[in-house]
């Protein structure tokens, strides 16, 4: 019995946590302290905070991965959720390992906007598109993150003559089309943008660079 108990402890999953970007929410974990055997499999359950019964996640029942997609199971974004994982190896089952409480609306990271340079003459005109959630409207299009948060766009310009790392904030606001003027012809400029969520005081990563020469 003791050996079984030791093995149970050694295979018990560690660091169970939710990670979430634009409400695409996945549960991640690390294998137990034992060197992971080839036959180790994992079982995932989830529940809403306050509920007594756990739900099995069928696609993540007896899997070898260390990640499980719970996007659809956490679609009520104001609700707090828990996930938990247990491992099995050589017919021995570990105890459950529990995640911290996860509230999608509060904890998801909002991604950067998509930036398109429409045209450039003496000025650059940009189009910004909010990141999209995985949740769909009745007609099938994905709901933008602006439906869930009051988002601001922050647009930065990089003058490649001066310094690759020097980003100057040229716009902050809600407009989707932005004009940047008073630029020098023949100079290469790059644009990056972030989304900012004022209510949570949180910024996204930078978007990928869009570069143009006037």
TrEMBL record:
It comes from the Eukaryota. Keywords: Disulfide bond, Receptor, Repeat, Secreted, Signal. Its main location: secreted. It holds the Pfam family Tissue_fac. Belongs to the type II cytokine receptor family. The gene is Il22ra2. It is found in: Secreted. GO terms for cellular component: extracellular region; plasma membrane. Residues 12-107 form the Fibronectin type-III domain. This is Interleukin-22 receptor subunit alpha-2. CDD domains: FN3. Coiled coil: none annotated. Receptor for IL22. Binds to IL22, prevents interaction with the functional IL-22R complex and blocks the activity of IL22 (in vitro). May play an important role as an IL22 antagonist in the regulation of inflammatory responses. One of its GO terms (molecular function) is cytokine receptor activity.
